[in-house]
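Entry type: protein chain
Record version: 2
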Amino acid sequence: MSKTLFLALLVALQIGQIHSHAVHDIQFQGPFGEPGPYQDSQMVMDESSGMMFKEWPEPEDNTIQCNGLESEITIKTIFRQSDQDGCYQFQTPGFGGPGYPNAGGGLPSYDCFFLLRFRGSNVAGTLTVPSATFDFQPKMGSPCKDYLRINNLIPHDGQSQDSDDTANSDTVVRYCGMITGDKMFNFNQSSLTIRLTADDTIRHDGAEVIICFP
């Protein structure tokens, strides 16, 4: 079984467990049932789904916060070569609680850029946006007021742009409101950018993004 096919199967299994919201213990295993390559201390559990993910690396500057009080901020996270295996779970600020922040301090809107840099060149992997946990302010006219935008992606298995994507680009996706199905993409880059944009009204839960390396 190829690494790419195994990754796709692994992510599909994860998404199915997220949909079922079953909470149970998972022992990570390799493709043939052998113990997985990750130590328990490196793994964290998503309590809502029971899924195990590797712990998200610390950002370069953990004093920078996406709180809606600045018009534009960038949070940089470095994935070292030793980090580039297994799966990671990204969540927008406030996910599972109050939701992503509204713009404050008199701002009409804000942009938070989460810049993910991968040590090495042309690092390959998959990125999935699960539909079951995607919740943004519904689209009110055009363009979206609150949205999630991700750069440097490759359509998975030759898929074309779908009706949920408002970015009009082959390498960029932008979603708002609800999405009609799980969105899976490939990447082969030295970086990815996840962008959260919101205005000063109607906050929602936000989104999760699953990133997997071979």
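Comment: The chain is about 10% helix and 35% strand.
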